[in-house]
Amino acid sequence: MRGWWIGAACLAASAALHAQGSVEQASAAAPNRSAGEVSAPVAPVTQAAPPLRRIPVGDAARRRRPRAARPEPLTPSPITDHFALRGSYFLGHVATRAQFDSANGGAGTAFSAEQTLGLSGRTSQARPELIFRLEQRNRLRLNFLDLRRSGEARLSAPLQFGDQLFKASAVLQSELDWRQTDFTYTYSVIRTDRFELGLGAALHLIQAEASSQVPHSPQRAMYSEAGPFVTFAADGTVRIDRHWSLTARGQYFKMTINDNDGMLGIYHADLQYRWRANFAVGAGYEYERVYVDLLHTDPSGFVQFEVSGPELFARLSF
To answer: Which tens digit of pLDDT belongs to each residue from 258-317?
Structure first.
């Protein structure tokens, strides 16, 4: 028994001496650290992260973002047609006033072709129209007018027609032909699925011929003139819904060169119903006025021509 407790005492003394040596080693490693202070773990050394890339926000981001393309109109209408053939039946009212001076400078007699010469003031005719769309915003339109009239009347007063003087009570047979071809180009400054507005210019080729004679006599007078004319043009289309569309256009120009005046104005509006994707019918109204006053030319004088009236039409398009 005495040997057991002596061995235990020696073992306890050895453990105490070992613990004291461990405390002394820790104190030597950290001499300034106060008793009871817990040592913080040392963070591992790592490589510094690269700087973050700046992401543009606000106006800069909007400027760099690509703009989405505007979708093209899809609903069939005059706005989407690349080719159109239009045939109309025109019921018009015609008014013509003129004066043809003599070659020696004598003033002619101003007259009305309908009242003085007995020409009809009404016309009914078929009129074609062609429209070509080049790419998406360029359009070319072709219009034609061929108006030929004749009549007979007894003069109530003398008529100076150019170099020919027709006496009062003379019976005159007269003809008046007006032929016109219009080439109109417009560029669509605005084009959406429901609205289109085009601006441009037009070239008009005009030829006018007038003649009067006393039957079975050498008394005869003729007037003939031809030439081009240019106007500025505007053309608009509104698609009301899937089937209905309203179109309107206007062309006008007035000029004066060396005391010679010229003016041309054409105005048109129509409402059409899209019965099928490639076929439409409708009704419209057109007014045209031409005025030419020529001085110091042979022949000289003036011509004022007006034609207006309603129309019915059918339109084939692709």
So the answer is: 888 999 999 999 999 999 999 999 999 999 999 999 887 777 889 999 999 999 999 999
Closest listed residue to residue 113, CA positions, set 36, 174, 34, 52 = 174
Amino acid at 143: N
Which sequence spans correspond to the domains of the chain? 83-317
What CATH architecture applies to the domain 83-317?
A: Beta Barrel (2.40)
Do 122 and 69 meet the contact criterion of CB atoms below 8 Å apart? no
Tokens of 222: 């003729």
Q: Which two tokens stand for residue 67?
A: 């703009």
Task: Report d(CA 21, CA 4) in Å as an integer.
Answer: 27
Q: What is the mean pLDDT of residues 214-228?
A: 91
User: Measuring CA to CA, which residue among 117, 215, 123 is closest to residue 161?
Assistant: 117
Judge contact between 174 and 113, C-beta under 8 A. yes
Tokens 């070509």, located at residue: 132
Checking 263-270 for CB contacts under 8 A at 24+ apart, the result is: 263/289, 263/290, 263/291, 263/292, 264/204, 264/229, 264/231, 264/288, 264/289, 264/290, 264/291, 265/231, 265/289, 266/182, 266/231, 270/246, 270/311, 270/313
Amino acid letter, residue 56: P
Query: By mean pLDDT, which of 30-34, 42-46, 92-96, 178-182 is the weakest?
Result: 30-34
Q: What type of residue sits at position 229?
A: F
CA distance 141 to 299: 33
Nearest alpha-carbon partner for 210 in 92, 94, 100, 104 = 100
